[in-house]
């Protein structure tokens, strides 16, 4: 379908003898927020790394916009998709503005910019939309966890892609920063038509901020679809091995995690 930005066919991957992804197939649609959920060890992080070219599949294929990512050079892939990993580090003295400017690297040749005005425009926009311009002269190491996360997202946005991957973007953040990041993600999708593909641990955040959910178990897709149809008491028991009560809040299902 023309609306599919990613198509995965019969994907398999193992670490040594430990099979992590098992004959997995799925499609990811444009202009949506798709969230991958599942218990620890289900394969969601491995799938994330396969989709972002950090790992190579043993079998099967992954297509982005109709092209097999195996055949796309990393620099060209970085013009298709931007990635914010769960763990990020930067040199102690690196400024916020300098870090964000690294997002323009895929558009440089031999380290030289082809269009410095375009670079500046994208860097400024990325700082404005993430509300990080006020920190531009500060060292990244001086920022709080939530501030740092917005800076890493700004660097990804400076890449000027229509696909953004986020690996557990709210982990280790307090509730205020979690909500700020999730609202920013929704804004990027709704206002700027950026396709978001992310991994989340929090089921209720997944329910509230996603257009589509992929629930994984033992390296396979157990269920994929709209949040209200995917996340049920039965699915939670199957995926997480616990029985939890569910309620409806603002017309959406809500899991009571106690």
TrEMBL record:
Keywords, comma-separated and alphabetical: ATP-binding, Cell membrane, Ion transport, Iron, Iron transport, Membrane, Nucleotide-binding, Transport
SMART domains: AAA (SM00382)
Any one GO MF annotation of this record: ATP hydrolysis activity
InterPro entries in the record: AAA+_ATPase, ABC_transporter-like_ATP-bd, ABC_transporter-like_CS, P-loop_NTPase, Siderophore_ABC-ATPase
Membrane topology annotation: Peripheral membrane protein
Span of domain ABC transporter: 6-243
GO cellular component terms, semicolon-separated: plasma membrane
Record's subcellular location: Cell membrane
Gene Ontology BP terms: iron ion transport
Protein name: ABC transporter ATP-binding protein
């Amino acid at each position: 379908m023309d609306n599919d930005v990613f198509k995965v066919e019969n994907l398999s991957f193992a670490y040594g003898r430990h099979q992590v992804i098992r004959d997995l197939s799925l499609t990811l649609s444009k202009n949506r927020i798709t969230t991958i959920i599942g218990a620890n060890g289900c394969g969601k992080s491995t799938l994330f790394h396969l989709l972002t070219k950090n790992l190579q599949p043993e079998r099967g294929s992954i297509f982005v916009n109709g092209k097999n990512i195996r055949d796309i050079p990393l620099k060209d892939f970085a013009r298709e998709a931007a990635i914010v990993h769960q763990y990020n580090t930067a040199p102690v003295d690196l400024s916020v503005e300098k870090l964000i400017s690294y997002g323009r690297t895929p558009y440089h040749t031999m380290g030289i910019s082809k269009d410095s005005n375009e670079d500046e425009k994208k860097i400024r926009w990325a700082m404005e939309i993430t509300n990080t311009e006020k920190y531009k002269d500060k060292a990244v190491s001086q920022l709080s966890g939530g501030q740092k996360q917005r800076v890493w997202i700004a660097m990804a946005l400076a890449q000027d892609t229509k696909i953004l991957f986020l690996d557990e973007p709210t982990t280790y953040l307090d509730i205020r920063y979690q909500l700020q990041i999730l609202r920013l993600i929704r804004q990027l999708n709704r206002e700027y038509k950026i396709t978001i593909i992310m991994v989340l641990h929090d089921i209720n955040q997944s329910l509230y901020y996603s257009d589509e959910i992929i629930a994984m178990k033992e390296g396979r897709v157990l269920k994929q679809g709209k949040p209200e149809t995917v996340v049920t008491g039965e699915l939670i028991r199957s995926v997480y091995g616990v029985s939890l009560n569910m309620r409806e809040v603002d017309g959406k299902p809500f899991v009571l995690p106690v």
